[in-house]
Amino acid sequence: MCFSTNVIEQQALIISDKIIKNSIYKPVSLDFISEKNVGIQDFTMQSSGKDISLITRINLENNEGLQISVEPNENGLRYAMGEISYKDYKKLQNQESRQFIWYFFAISSVFLLISWATFRWFFI
What we know:
This protein is of the alpha+beta class.
């Protein structure tokens, strides 16, 4: 049985493709994890290849010529489709970052508490 190990890269590719196709803004380029910046036309040529690198940002250009970078996630898709403003997009991104920090802190605390309780149970 064959299982693909690049699930994150494929998910980012799928969301990026949705953003490019459904955006009300002009897609300009993509940034990859290797700090490589590729134009949209070049990306469509390379996307048929098997080696997929992780897309970290999609650069969009609005009507005034201002370039805005969004991440390939649901919030970025909602912004690109015009459902939310850039201010709301940034607020949602910051909220998710804070949520991740709290989850990490809570899980770490639980493991620390379990370790302490196990130590006290067996060694004291």
